[in-house]
Design a protein that fits this description.
This protein is mainly alpha-helical. The protein has four helices and no strands. It has a domain of 55 residues. The chain is elongated.
Length: 146
Amino acid sequence: MTRSRRIIVPLLAAALLACASASISAQTAQQYSSATHPTPAHKTTKKHPHHTRDRGQIAPTPDRIEEIQTALARENAYQGEPNGKWDAATIAAMRRFQSANGLEPTGKIDALTLQKLGLGSEVAGKGAPTPPTGPDADSPPITEVR
């Protein structure tokens, strides 16, 4: 019987070790799979497009386009009646205006073009604020002491 124990015990130990190893392999594979391909907690659908993230600038309204067309017509760049549509005639007029005013003729609306048309901010494209000048310019900035 001792001889059979010598054979059975190592065989049982080897079988037990093989089962444990297979179980650990399966768990590791499952963890790797879920780490590289996570499954969402809930099913996602695209039923609600209004919940999407905004991307870039929004298109100008027809009223704003008509305002731009009127300004381009005032500058003799746009021919015809303003119609509120960003069409080929408007793009061509925008390019003509941009070129005539030393801007890159892209035909696209940008801050400097709107400023030159009298429709934009007065500070658009002016650059970063400059440091103060004058008698107080040399004094160190005031810092709060706590």
